Amino acid sequence: QVQLVESGGGLVQAGGSLRLSCAASERTISTYVMGWFRQAPGKEREFVAGQSRSGNTYYADSVKGRFTISRDNAKNTVYLQMNSLKPEDTAVYFCASDVTNIYAPRYWGQGTLVTVSS
């Protein structure tokens, strides 16, 4: 079973940047699809970004051009670089992984809170 631990959340002003990290217990995350989801207060959890095993990336329209997902397989870590943050990006961000389907991942982290002030 893959265990995922997020870090890097915090409070940032609108227009600022944050980088989230997700450390995976599995030593072969290169064989998993990895992704990030978020859940804002009172809203359902939504897909933010994903990366296939071959390195292809996928983004929600709301973050395209501002967020970048990447991974360091040697460190078993996935990152989410978030630039030009907006107050509507405020949410708990979750790292997730699956063998095949990043839109319905099997494994989840506990989440890290990102708050963007206006």
Summarize the structure in words.
This protein is an all-beta fold and 118 residues long. The chain is 0% helix and 50% strand. The protein has no helices and eleven strands. The strands form two sheets. Strands 2, 4, 5, 6, 9, 10 and 11 form a seven-stranded mixed β-sheet that branches. β4 and β5 form a beta hairpin. The chain is globular, with a radius of gyration of 13 Å.
Provide a brief overview of the structure:
This protein is 0% helix and 50% strand. With 118 residues, the chain is mainly β.
Write the layout of secondary structure elements.
Elements (H helix, E strand, L loop, with lengths): L3 E4 L2 E4 L4 E7 L8 E7 L6 E6 L5 E3 L7 E6 L4 E6 L8 E8 L8 E2 L3 E6 L1
Parallel strand pairs: 2-11
Antiparallel strand pairs: 1-3, 3-8, 4-5, 4-9, 5-6, 7-8, 9-10, 9-11
Poorly predicted segments: none
| Strand count | 11
- Mean pLDDT score: 94
Estimate percent helicity. Answer: under 10%
- End-to-end gap: 39 Å
Shape: globular
Beta-strand proportion: over 45%
Biggest pleated-sheet summary: 7 strands, mixed
Query: Count the helices. How many?
Result: 0
What structural category arises from helix and sheet content?
Answer: mainly beta
Order of helices and strands: EEEEEEEEEEE
How large, in whole angstroms, is the Cα Rg? 13 Å
Which key features would you list for this structure?
118 residues, mainly beta, 4-stranded antiparallel sheet, 11 strands, 50% strand, globular
